[in-house]
What does this fold into?
Amino acid sequence: MSSYAQKKGFGATVWDYMTTVDHKKIAILYLMAGGFFFLVGGLEALIIRIQLAVPNNDFVSAGLYNELLTMHGTTMIFLAAMPLIFAFMNAVVPLQIGARDVAFPFVNSLGFWLFFLGGVFLNLSWFMGGAPDAGWTSYASLSMASPGHGIDFYVLGLQIAGAGTLIGGINFLVTIINMRAPGMTYMRMPLFTWTVFVTSALILFAFPALTVGLFLMLFDRMFGANFFDVANGGNTIIWEHFFWIFGHPEVYILVLPAFGIFSEIIPHFSRKRLFGYSSMVFATVLIGFLGFMVWAHHMFTVGLGPIANAIFAVATMAIAVPTGIKIFNWVLTMWGGSLTFTTPMLYAVAFIPTFVAGGVTGIMLASAAADYQFHDTYFVVAHFHYVIVGGVVFALLAGTHYYWPKMFGTMLNDFLGKIAFWLFFIGFHLTFFIQHFLGLMGMPRRVWTFLPGQGFETANLVSSIGAGFMGVAVIVYVINIIVTQVKGVKVANDPWGDGRTIEWAIPSPPPFYNFKQTPLIRGLDAYWLEKMEGNKGLTPAEPIGDIHMPNNSILPFFISLGLFIAAFGAMYHVDDKAWALPVLVIGMLITLGSMFLRSVLDDHGYHVHKEDLMDDDKGGKA
It folds into this structure.
C-alpha cells in the first residue's frame, strides 16, 4: 500500500486511483486487473485439467467445458497477458526514456478503463445466461450457430477492451517517438523500450483487423447481415482471415515485450552489456515485420491451395532467423559474465530452452504437409503453451519480481520467489511437454472427454498433476506479494545493484514527476556510464524549474462506463426487450456527454514549483 493510502484513508485512495492519469498508478491498476484475470483464467484452466485427468470424467458437462475452454483462452490472451504487458509498459517506458509521463495521460487512463470494463462485461456472461462457447478464436461457423448471448458478450466485450488496447498502443508510439530525453537516440534506447516501440506499431496495424471482424460478426448476429452465412452467400473463411491477420501479430505483441524484459534482466544479473545490441534491435524490428506475413499458417487445412500454403510456410520458417539471433545473443551475454541467480534471473535462464522448444515445434507446424497431421491435436496445444507460457508468462513473473521495487518501493522475498519458480517451472513442463506426445498419438484438442483404452490415460493424468503444481506456484507467488506489502520494508533507488538503465537512478517508487530535471543521455546503458565515471546521479539536461503535470480526471471512467452500459442495451435490443433501447441510449449519452465535457473543459493541469523541488532535496514533501 502506498504512503498516500496510509495517510489519506481507503476511500480517498480508491478515488485517487479511479481518477488518476499518472502512468505509474495506471501501471498498478493494469497489474491488479491483469493479475485478477490471470487468476480467473488459471482457475478455468485447472477445471479443464481436472475434467481431463481421467477418462469418461463428468466433472463438468460438455457445454460448460466448451464455455470454460473459450473463456480460458480469451481471458488469458486479452484480459491477463495484454494488460500485464501494459502494466510494465506504463511502469517502465517513461522512466527508461527520461519522460515525466506518457504523451497523452488522459488517453492512457481511458485505455485502462476501456480494457477493464470490457473484461468485466465479458465475464458477466457467466452470470447472465452462459459464456461464449465457440473457442477463443470464435470461428464463424461455430459462433453463428451458438444460441443465447454468449458470443454477443464476446463480441461486445472484446470491442470495448480492444479499443482500450488500440489507443494505448498509439499512445506509446507517440511517447517513444516524441518524449525521449536529450541524447537518447533510437540506438541508445533500452531493449525493453525498443520492444514496446515495435509492439505498439503491431497493435496499431493488427487490432483494426480484429475490430472489423468483430463488427461484421456483430451485424451478422444482431441484424442478420450474412457476412459469414454460407447459405446466404457469405463466407466463414473470411472470419479466419480477419482473426488471424490480428491473431498472429498478437503473439508477437505479447512475446516481444517479454523478450524486452529478459533483455534487461540477463545483462543486469550477468554484470555485462547486452551482447550484440544493434543486432537485437534489428531482429526485433524484423520479427515485427515478418509477424504480419504468416497469418495463414493457422489455416493450412482450409483449402487455400499449395501455392498459398508454400508461401506462408516459407515466411513462417523465416521468422525463426531473427528469433534465433536473440537466443544466441542472450546466451553470449551470460557467457563469461558474473552471474547472480536471483529469482528474475532463474526465470530468464529457464525461458531460453523452454522458448527454443516452443520455436522448434513451431517450425514443425510451419511445414504445411506435416501440419495436416498435427492440426487440431494436442501437439498444437503444447506448442502454443510453450510459446505463450514458456515465453510470456515466464517474463511476466520475472518482470514482476524485477520491477516490483521500482513500482512499489518494496522487495519481494527471494526465497519464496524461488520456491514459486521451481513449482511453476516443474509444473509447466509436466503439464505441456507430455501433450506433444498426446497430439502425436492422435488426441484431438478441445475434446470434452476421452475413452479408456485409447492410450491417453497416463499422459493426461501427468498433465493434470502438473497443472496443480502451477496452481500452487501462483498461490505461493500471491502470498509473497501479500507478505511483502504488509511488512512494507522500503528499498533504495537501485535495490538489485548494478542497474544499467536510468530508471534505477531515481527513488523507488519514483516521485509523481519522475525526474526533477530531465536527464542528459550520454550513451547506451546511461546510468551505468555515469556510475563508471564516479557520478552519483544522472547528468541533468536542464536547470531546476517549474514542472507542469496533468490534472486527475474521472471522465475516462465515465466514457468507458457509458459504452459498458450501452453494450447491454445493444445486446438485449435484439430480444425486443422494452428496456433495452433506453439503456443503449443512456449509455451512449454518458459516453458522448463525457467526451463533450472533456472537450469544453480547459484543463491547465498544475505546477510543481522550483521551491518545492528544492525543499524535496532537504526532506520536504514536494
User: Anything to note?
Assistant: Strands lie at 547-549, 606-608. The first strand starts at residue 547 and ends at 549.
